[in-house]
């Protein structure tokens, strides 16, 4: 595809994204809304390795220069950035039957907000730093790997406990598939990037498989293209090497898994 240089749509939702854990939040909810209500949208691939997200036209959409971002051309060209803000906006405006969200006066609306906030303030930053220290840092720092992978494990232990007797994170009974789940799916998908698998969290693994069975989730994971990072299973040869490095860092600092 040609390098994006401006917005290309004049109506509907325009998504600017890449296949990352945060990018998948927007693409999955848009695919779910398309199935449920026929909502159509346009998307453009923003290759962050080429710094497209730092160009003036993109900064006009998201001053922070990050993906994902959307423009709602049917709502005065409103710009929305940050994956979780996009989840909230799209469901408030277009999920009129609350199929993937909850009514504002429903206590589950607040429960969903709590888990989405937990993802935004906990899982995203901790797992993101784990990815950096394990995969991308030029200098391999055992303390950084031990610290952030350990915190990632602790957080997923909390989610596993929440899902012990539930199908989905929030909702009556055993729960319903909602934006609380969508906020976490992309991050759960790339656990192997830091040498982790879901084997130690059976309820988490069952939840992920349940969500992944949804056609819209499958399609959302392929937008704007097939993701480059490994899926949850199995650990690739590269990810096994990352696991060895993480295990060595844990041993150096006498790490013991605990959660919460």
TrEMBL record:
Tell me the InterPro entries matching this sequence: Glutathione-S-Trfase_C-like, Glutathione-S-Trfase_C_sf, Glutathione_S-Trfase, Glutathione_S-Trfase_N, GST_C, Thioredoxin-like_sf
Q: Which domain of life is it from?
A: Eukaryota
Q: Where is the signal peptide?
A: none
Residue ranges of domain GST N-terminal in the record: 14-98
Give start and end of each GST C-terminal domain: 105-231
Question: What family classification does the UniProt entry report for this protein?
Answer: Belongs to the GST superfamily.
Task: Identify this protein by name.
Answer: Glutathione S-transferase
Q: Which organism is it from?
A: Stachybotrys elegans
């Amino acid at each position: 595809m040609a390098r994006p240089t401006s917005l290309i749509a004049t109506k509907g939702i325009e998504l600017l994204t890449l296949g990352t854990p945060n990018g998948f939040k927007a693409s999955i909810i848009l695919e779910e809304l398309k199935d449920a209500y026929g909502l159509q949208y346009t998307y453009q691939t923003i290759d962050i390795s080429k710094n497209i997200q730092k160009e003036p036209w993109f900064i006009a959409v998201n001053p922070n220069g990050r993906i994902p971002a959307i423009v709602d051309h049917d709502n005065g060209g409103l710009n929305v950035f940050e994956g979780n803000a996009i989840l909230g906006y799209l469901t408030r405006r277009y999920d009129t039957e609350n199929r993937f969200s909850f009514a504002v006066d429903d206590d589950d609306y607040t429960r969903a907000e709590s888990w989405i906030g937990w993802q935004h303030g906990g899982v995203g930053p901790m797992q993101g730093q784990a990815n950096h220290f394990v995969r991308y840092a030029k200098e391999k720092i055992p303390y950084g790997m031990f610290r952030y992978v350990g915190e990632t494990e602790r957080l997923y232990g909390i989610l596993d406990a929440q899902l012990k007797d539930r199908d989905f994170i929030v909702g009556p009974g055993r729960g319903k598939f909602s934006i609380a789940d969508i906020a976490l799916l992309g991050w759960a998908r790339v656990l192997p990037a830091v040498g982790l698998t879901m084997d130690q969290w059976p309820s988490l693994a069952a939840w992920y498989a349940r969500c992944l069975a949804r056609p819209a989730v499958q399609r959302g994971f392929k937008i704007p293209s097939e993701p480059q990072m490994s899926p949850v299973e199995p650990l690739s040869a590269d990810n096994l090497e990352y696991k060895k490095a993480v295990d060595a860092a844990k041993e150096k600092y006498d790490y013991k898994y605990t959660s919460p």
